């Protein structure tokens, strides 16, 4: 599975989940080294009243359960929005070697925008990061969501 194809799936998950949960449209997928999707996630903070229920955390929990290990060291995470500090920490703790994200988050991004948690030289884990995949589509989905909420 290439980055573009994976991001299209993450965008689809984000858009569908936002309609059903009413939460910010962020979608995440995790696939293994064979290119098989083993977990998907979307924001569920509003649905579960859980501040930790970001798309990345939801997907990581599902992937760890499916694989029977907290170590996801042969998996890739694809997410429509730059991870926050909490999610960046969880990604590092899961030992994933690759992260792909779409839109930058100028307010809370922790993979280059506001902070750079995953590339900090003091970090115990290093990974390959690809940013800006289908960036405009990811950003537009968020923009439409927030414009719709401001009109209410």
Q: Describe it for me?
A:
This protein is an alpha/beta fold. The chain is built from five helices and five strands. The protein has helices at residues 3-21, 45-48, 55-67, 85-93, 135-150; strands at 27-32, 37-42, 75-81, 98-103, 128-131. A five-stranded mixed sheet has the order 2-1-3-4-5. A hairpin with a 4-residue loop joins β1 and β2 (37-42). The radius of gyration is 14 Å and the shape is globular. The mean pLDDT is 94.
Task: Give the ordered list of helices and strands.
Answer: HEEHHEHEEH
In round numbers, the mean pLDDT is 94
> Which term fits the overall shape?
globular
Report how far the terminal alpha carbons are from each other: 39 Å
Q: Tell me the helix content.
A: 40-55%
Q: For the largest beta sheet, what order do the strands appear in spatially?
A: 2-1-3-4-5
Helix-and-strand structural type:
alpha/beta
Assembly of the depicted chains: single chain
Low-confidence runs of at least 5 consecutive residues? none
Tell me the radius of gyration.
14 Å
- Continuous helix count: 5
Largest sheet: 5 strands, mixed
């Amino acid at each position: 599975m290439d980055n573009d194809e994976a991001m299209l799936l993450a965008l689809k998950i984000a858009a569908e989940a936002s309609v059903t949960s009413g939460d910010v449209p962020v979608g995440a997928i995790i696939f293994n080294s064979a290119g098989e999707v083993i977990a998907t996630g979307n924001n569920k903070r509003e649905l579960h009243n859980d501040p930790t229920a970001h798309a990345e955390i939801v997907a990581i929990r599902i992937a760890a359960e499916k694989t029977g290990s907290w170590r996801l060291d042969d998996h890739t995470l694809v997410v429509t929005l730059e991870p926050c500090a909490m999610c960046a920490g969880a990604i590092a703790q899961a030992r994933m070697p690759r992260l792909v994200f779409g839109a930058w988050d100028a307010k809370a991004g922790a993979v280059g925008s506001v902070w750079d948690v995953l590339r900090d030289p003091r970090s115990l884990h290093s990974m390959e990061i690809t940013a800006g995949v289908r960036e405009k589509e990811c950003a537009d989905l968020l923009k439409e969501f927030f414009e719709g909420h401001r009109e209410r």
